[in-house]
Design brief:
about 150 residues
Length: about 150
């Protein structure tokens, strides 16, 4: 498996978090976000960025949803980090078939989405059928009305 760089620039950090580059530099200068100085620029370790995001309510959703890892190109780390967020240092409980609770939660969300889509599709088809019935009833009434004239 290809190892991705764990170091990112202030610019990439600002893009990932959706903030101004100067805001990132301010966090580094204040000590809120750890960074190393290489040459004349700050370099941020992705692990430090994840820790910062976990502690900052404005960015916690990026960690818990996995979006931060996708933006950093580290989507494979999401399961392990998410387990750490939810279960601390404990390993998430494993089911008899080898799935952990995070995988089950993911499966539940996927099935709920599938259910909602199916329900909407059914409602749409029902409306279309009702519309056809109404048209046929109107046509039927029109023919009856004409035949009585």
């Amino acid at each position: 498996m290809e190892e991705r760089s764990r170091e990112i620039s202030v610019k990439k950090t600002s893009e990932v978090l959706g903030v101004n580059e100067e805001t990132v530099r301010r966090w580094v200068r204040s000590g809120d976000l750890h960074a190393e100085i290489k040459g004349k620029t700050y370099i941020i370790d992705t692990e430090d960025l994840v820790d910062f995001a976990k502690k900052n309510p404005k960015f916690t959703h990026l960690v818990t949803s996995g979006a931060l890892f996708k933006l950093l190109g580290l989507a494979g780390l999401f399961q392990g980090i998410a387990a750490g967020l939810k279960f601390g240092k404990k390993t998430p409980p494993i089911t008899a078939d080898g799935r952990n609770l995070l995988k089950i939660e993911q499966d539940i969300r996927q099935l709920e989405t599938q259910y909602k889509k199916s329900k909407l599709k059914f409602e749409l088809e029902t409306l279309e059928i009702n519309e056809k019935i109404d048209k046929l009833k109107d046509e039927y009434e029109e023919i009856i009305h004409k035949s009585q004239e």
